[in-house]
Amino acid sequence: MADVDMQRGDRIAKLRKEHGWNQDEFASRVGICRQSMSCIENGHGIKHSTLVRMASVLGVTTDYILKGSCKNENKKNLIEAINFELESMEEVELKKCLAMIQVSKRLSA
Q1: What is the DSSP track for 8-66?
Q2: N or C: which end of the chain has fewer CB within 10 A?
Q3: pLDDT exceeds cutoff 90 at 96
Q4: Residue 29 maps to which CATH number?
Q5: 86 lies in which domain range?
Q6: What is the rounded CA–CA span in Å between residue 105 and residue 29?
Q7: What percent of the chain has pLDDT over 70?
Q8: What pLDDT sits at residue 52?
Q9: Structurally, how many domains does the chain consist of?
Q10: What would the pLDDT profile of 43-82 be if each residue is shown by its tens digit?
Q11: Greatest Cα-to-Cα distance within the chain, rounded to the nearest angstrom
Q12: Cα 23 to the chain's mean position, in Å?
């Protein structure tokens, strides 16, 4: 196992603990089993879809999980996480999200 994989696993475990979740709770939120979570935290491979879900649940970018940088700054990864969440929504929910975005933009102007 590469040192970079262990560092990634350590970052995930640290973020999970900051949220007060044990491996079972976090695995459930991400949609994987506890054994898979344990393997990931111990430096084994991680699927892209799991990585994106983890980043979304933890409120960080995939870059932060992978490299330890850009904790909340990487626009591309934020868009990726948002798109991942939007893909599972029904049309009615998507329309509500669009309306909220439009309101937010008007309030920021």
Answers
A1: HHHHHHHHHHHTT--HHHHHHHHTS-HHHHHHHHTT----HHHHHHHHHHHTS-HHHHH
A2: C
A3: yes
A4: 1.10.260.40
A5: 3-108
A6: 30
A7: 94
A8: 93
A9: 1
A10: 999 999 999 999 999 988 888 898 887 555 557 767 877 8
A11: 49
A12: 15
